[in-house]
Amino acid sequence: MLDQGNDQAAGLRQLMAQAAPLAMLAFPLDGGPGAWIAQLAHALRALGRKPVVLDAGRGTVAAAFGLKLRHELLDLLQGSRPFDDVARTTDDGVWVLRGERGIDAFVASGAPAQQLLGGFARLSQGFDELLLAMPAGELACLAAPGRSVPVLGMDVGSQGRVESYALLKHMAGGFGYRRFSCVVRGADNAAHAAEEHARLAQAARQFLDTEVLLAGWLPAGPEGREAALAHTADTLLRTAATPLLAA
Questions:
Q1: Which H or E element spans position 242?
Q2: What is this structure's pTM?
């Protein structure tokens, strides 16, 4: 099913344990650091969840976990490596794998996204959430507009709002997304985060006809970070997680 005779089905057949409930969280990468996504994955784990992170953004997020990933999703799809070789786990139990080549090959194959995403629900690890982190164009191929709620990270200040608005405009105008979730980074407190979010949400509603929900915030320093992360992770599970069915 892949180009040059690669057998995509061979890799997908390895995802054959009993299906477990699985939800997807979609993070469009904007060229900035991905450490905040890694922090949210750790926060989900601290809540007792079992997240797996698929980084298709040139290792932007994977690097934040401090793991050495020698293989990637393409090796799994081709059937040359099992999942335990392709992915690695952190000390607290977050599984991470890279996937830019695998995603490119899968999209080029023309196979439905559910065939890949649902396969993660059949892994024996029994994951609860699949965190997708990749550029907006690739994310749109897997996390369909109208069904998924992309999660944006916005830095406080005018520059952060400008950059987040540009990403919103790109995803709304280019791919048809109409609903987003926002994590405000570097806020002084919850009220500051709400103020920053309100400005972005108003502009998005007025000029792009899109809705931007406030998922939470992350402080600039370590004080209160754990509580803010826990609150944000819990909110994302309730507002931005898209249920996936096993393929």
A1: strand 242-244
A2: 0.89
